[in-house]
Specification:
Structural class: alpha+beta
Largest sheet: 10 strands, antiparallel
Distance between the termini: 136 Å
Shape: rod-shaped
Mean pLDDT: 84
Helix content: 10-25%
């Protein structure tokens, strides 16, 4: 029995010695490493779009092979290229020997930050077309590129466009500057373009010269009709009429007191300017495509409507509030010929003393008008 055990142990030892003496396959060379690179190390994504890439260069920088442990750690520098970019990085590949597959990459890691280099000429052309299309979709008329630069250090771009918005009553001209840089999203070679749009100062032109506007606020018993006679820079010259109903129900008409006003254009393409003051409240006009209105202070008053000059050429012919006769109409005493009354003519016709009689008819009429005007 002891002899049998000795022979069995000797066989096992022989087998072990034979196995230890077998030679492992050669470790992967640069050509084989190209094929072994994991997909994560050959895929580049820009703004969610995977780019077509190829391995332009691969160089082994350092290697640590341990045949006893059957491991091979390889440090490589790799360059990937695409249509309009290149990406350089250094990685550490951890190989292990597997009997069925041979030397296999079991894990990997980047040893430093990858360096992305974009072709500025190609990317500027791409963003130029994209930004022109975007500006057109946002309502700008015929945007034109006026300047563009490329920052090689940051792969950033800056493009400036002249833009124009043409409406029925307003033309706005300005510049729009678009800047962008790619930022890594972390994990692999995924990048996202971040862009920022800045609009410059706007030069606006009001297309209001010759237009006629009508406000009829029945709730306030107020009607205003005015014409924009001239537009010179930021100044509008106005002329018009105001009709209002007083507390006695009579309609009074006056001319528009303010003839020159300063207009501005809001960020939404709306023209606004002060019109006049009624009962201590400033009336302001707002004119934009599709909608025009008037406010009294901060409250909405009523809508504005555009009118055309009537054949008579008189703005007042467009107004709807009808003027009513004055409640106090001065009359002139009828002058009678001597003897026409059939009565004897008095010896002398002396005028009554104004101080004793309480004043003349003219004085009375002036006091009535003063009271009448005070009702507005």
């Amino acid at each position: 029995m002891k002899a049998w055990n000795i022979l069995l142990l000797s066989g096992v030892l022989a087998a072990m010695l034979t196995g230890c003496g077998s030679k492992l396959p050669d470790v992967a060379d640069e050509s084989a490493i190209r094929e072994d690179l994991p997909q994560e190390l050959t895929t580049v994504t820009l703004s969610g779009e995977a780019q077509d890439t190829e391995i332009a260069a691969l160089e082994i920088l350092e290697r640590d092979t341990d045949l006893t442990k059957q491991t091979d750690d390889v440090t490589c520098s790799v360059t990937l290229t695409g249509e309009d970019f290149s990406l350089e990085y250094t990685c550490l590949l951890h190989y292990a020997y597997v009997r069925d597959t041979g030397w296999t990459v079991r894990s990997f890691e980047l040893t430093d930050d990858p360096e992305l280099t974009l072709d500025g000429t190609q990317w500027l052309a791409r963003f130029r077309e994209e930004n022109l299309t975007l500006l057109t979709e946002e309502g700008y008329s015929n945007p034109e590129l006026t300047d563009e630069t490329w920052d090689e250090a940051d792969n950033g771009y800056c493009q400036t466009f002249s833009v124009c918005t043409e409406g029925e009553f307003l033309i706005s001209e300005s510049t729009v500057t678009v800047t962008g840089t790619p930022e890594g999203l972390g994990g692999g070679f995924a990048y996202q373009w971040t862009t920022e749009t800045t609009e410059g100062e706007t030069a606006a032109t009001a297309l209001l010269e010759g237009t006629i506007w009508h406000l009829l606020s029945e709730s306030e018993s107020l009607e205003i009709l005015f014409q924009v006679e001239q537009v010179e820079g930021e100044i509008l010259t106005l002329s018009g009429l105001i009709r209002s109903e007083n507390r006695l129900g009579a309609i009074r008409q006056t001319t528009l007191k303010t003839t020159e006003v300063t207009w501005i254009a809001t960020e939404h393409g709306c023209i606004t300017f002060p019109l006049t003051t009624v009962d201590g409240e400033e009336l302001s006009c707002y004119i934009q495509d599709g909608e025009q209105w008037v406010t009294a202070g901060e409250l909405y008053l009523d809508k504005l409507t555009q009118e055309t000059l009537p054949a008579s050429g008189e703005l007042s012919d467009l107004m709807e509030l009808e003027l009513t006769p004055s409640l106090w109409t001065p009359t002139t005493p009828e002058v009678q010929e001597p003897g026409s009354s059939g009565e004897d003519e008095p010896d002398s016709a002396e005028a009554p003393d104004s101080e004793e009689s309480g004043g003349t008819l003219s004085d009375l009429w002036d006091s009535i008008l003063e009271f009448w005007n005070g009702l507005w």
